[in-house]
Write a structure and sequence with these properties.
Layout lengths: L5 H17 L13 H9 L5 E5 L7 H5 L6 H14 L3 E5 L2 H24 L5 E6 L29 H4 L5 H14 L8 E6 L19 H18 L6 E2 L17 H9 L3 E4 L4 H11 L6 E5 L9 H10 L3 E5 L40 H22 L10
Parallel strand pairs: 1-2, 1-8, 2-3, 3-4, 4-5, 6-7, 7-8
Helix pairs in contact: 1-8, 4-5, 5-7, 7-8, 8-9, 11-12
Length: 400
């Protein structure tokens, strides 16, 4: 066993001390995790949930989407209209802690405006509070231009590596969670809250940015993630909370195999969510395993064409098992997620064939007319089935 440095021991002690202080005492007013019955009753009231992870084409990351100088409600209205034309009824949308620190009042107003635009198009979003993907050193203000031919070259983490490693900043994160959730705790325009996107299951995860991530971030996240759930519940959220399983083939879809971060996600989530950019057999295997939780299931990321995950081979399975399905990407734009993950190692100098993610070009033209036709057809088919099932039976003529 390697000896830990004095500084690291002090840091971990502070993190654990914060965890002990932040754990809320039980009270009759504290919201607790939904029971299986409560979660399933909520899900029974929802349509088949189909949507996309959303950021407007004009934004490279969460900060550019939401900051006052670059927030673009007209563009959002246009693009969500394209989503509505497909029959999509939810969007997964990323927030950021720095936006609350910068201008909490203005941020709330912009979120409210976004919700009004989404409601106009019959879309209820899932808001994501934190994210461990890509650049761990976010900054407010003007964001950098996209790197040519590179997938998601400007996406940023929340919290930053510096904030994650500094327990003194955790009260600021608590203020953000309680502030944004509390402001919209009863808002029926919101479908759910996603506490943390792809929290690390190991210190080795992080791709190109791994060297810049906080040291021992797996442990830091495991201390902080339960507190984030607790803060959202203390804020009075009436919508379900979740954090999605995602990484590797460690068997997180088998409940008896859980440990570390996935165990926390399973124990704290009101509804089960997961990511799968897999081919159909693996996608189905994960669903079958996750059904053991006896809670609603939503796949909050899928669809990477060249990896074998498509609308045509995934949505029928989601429909079969009544699993919500939210693909990555609606409109091609500054995130450049039409390029595959491998573009970080070898940037593209031309449009890839096929596109990795996304459905529409920036002018609203579908990447694939046949794909769009399929999406509309399967959603409309389910909607028709639900309408038929909910309609009162009419006796045949002459039977009265």
């Amino acid at each position: 066993m390697k000896l830990l440095s004095r500084g690291l021991l002090v840091g971990l002690f502070l993190v654990l001390s914060f965890s002990a202080r932040a754990t809320p005492k039980s009270s009759s007013s504290s919201r607790v995790r939904w029971t299986e019955r409560e979660a399933n009753a909520w899900y029974a009231q929802q349509p088949w949930l189909v949507g996309a992870n959303y950021i407007p084409a004009t934004a490279i990351n969460q900060l550019e989407m939401w900051q006052s100088d670059t927030f673009d409600p007209k563009r959002i209205d246009l693009e969500l209209g394209w989503a509505e034309s497909l029959g999509l009824n939810t969007m997964r949308v990323f927030l950021h802690d720095l936006l609350w620190e910068q201008d909490s009042k203005g941020f709330r107003k912009r979120v409210d405006l976004f919700l009004s635009i989404a409601a106009k198009h019959h879309i209820r979003p899932i808001f994501v509070l934190f994210d461990s993907c890509w650049d761990p050193n976010p900054h407010l203000g003007r964001q950098r231009a996209p790197a040519p031919g590179v997938h998601n070259s400007g996406w940023v983490q929340s919290p930053s590596a510096e904030a994650l490693a500094a327990p003194a900043q955790y009260p600021r994160l608590e203020f953000y969670v309680k502030g944004i959730v509390g402001a919209f705790k009863n808002d029926k325009r919101i479908l759910a809250w996603d506490m943390w996107n792809e929290p690390p299951n190991s210190d080795e995860s992080g791709g190109n940015f791994a060297p810049l991530n906080a040291r021992h971030r797996e442990h830091l996240v495991q201390v902080l993630l339960p507190q984030i759930f607790a803060w959202a519940r203390a804020a009075g959220a009436t919508q379900p909370l979740t954090s999605g399983f995602w990484e590797g083939d460690g068997g997180w879809w088998v409940p008896d195999h859980l440990s570390g971060t996935p165990k926390i996600q399973a124990e704290e989530s009101d509804i089960i969510s997961f990511h799968s950019y897999d081919r159909p057999a693996t996608f189905e295997k994960k669903i079958l395993g996750l059904r053991a939780y006896n809670r609603p299931i939503i796949c909050t990321e899928y669809m990477a064409r060249s990896a074998g995950s498509t609308f045509e081979n995934t949505l029928p399975l989601a429909k079969k098992y009544n699993v919500g399905a939210i693909n990555w990407g609606l409109v091609a734009g500054k995130t450049q997620t039409i390029y595959p993950w491998s573009s970080w190692q070898k940037p593209f100098d031309a449009e890839p064939a096929p596109w990795f993610h996304d459905v529409f070009r920036t002018d609203g033209t579908p990447y694939s007319a046949e794909e769009v036709k399929f999406i509309r057809s399967i959603i409309q088919g389910v909607a028709s089935e639900l309408d038929t099932a909910s309609s009162p039976s009419v006796p045949p003529k002459g039977s009265l």
